[in-house]
Design goal:
The protein is α/β, with parallel strands linked by helices and 164 residues long. It contains two helices and ten strands, in the order H-E-E-E-H-E-E-E-E-E-E-E.
Length: 164
């Protein structure tokens, strides 16, 4: 009898518990502190810097593969390759979503990339541009060669591959 009640209570607890699959990013600027970051569209279409990431390079191919992988996520938000950037160069807050490689210096050796979005300057925390800067100064701690450095998961809360 005690086993039966324990089983029923366990099942009841499992079905009434809330499980968070992901946590939405919040803005941190005083103008929009704690508002949820969001986009006006459901499409992120960045362009690639042809200087730091030449067409056909391994980095170029990796970005295209990452865009393809990101579209496997269960949301309605999609990623699309926007082509190569125009000759005006890359910069944060220039009206274009761009991806480029740059040495971010000693303070960022543990960061493989950073994202810069104009949502921080929006009173509503709305993004219309997001730049991804891949850190060429990043130094991943590499385990021995026989250990797989890439882990992946099919759980909703971790829908992307992560480097160990």
């Amino acid at each position: 009898m005690t086993k039966g009640i324990f089983s029923i209570v366990t099942v009841f607890i499992l079905f009434t518990s809330t499980v968070v699959a992901w946590e939405q990013i919040k803005c941190i600027a005083p103008i929009n502190k704690d508002k949820k970051k969001h986009w006006t569209t459901k499409l992120f279409k960045p362009v690639i810097d042809p200087i730091s990431i030449p067409e056909g390079s391994p980095q170029y191919k990796a970005i295209l593969e990452a865009i393809e992988q990101m579209n496997l996520n269960p949301s309605n938000f999609r990623y699309d390759f926007g082509g190569m950037d125009n000759p005006d160069g890359v910069a944060e807050n220039n009206g274009e979503s761009e991806i480029w490689m740059q040495d971010l210096g000693d303070n960022f050796t543990k960061n493989s990339a950073i994202e810069s979005s104009n949502s921080e300057y929006s009173p509503t925390c709305t993004a219309t541009e997001s730049d991804i800067i891949i850190n060429t100064h990043y130094r991943m701690a590499r385990p021995p060669a026989h250990i797989n450095k890439l882990i992946s998961s099919h759980e909703k809360k971790s829908i992307i591959c992560l480097w160990r």
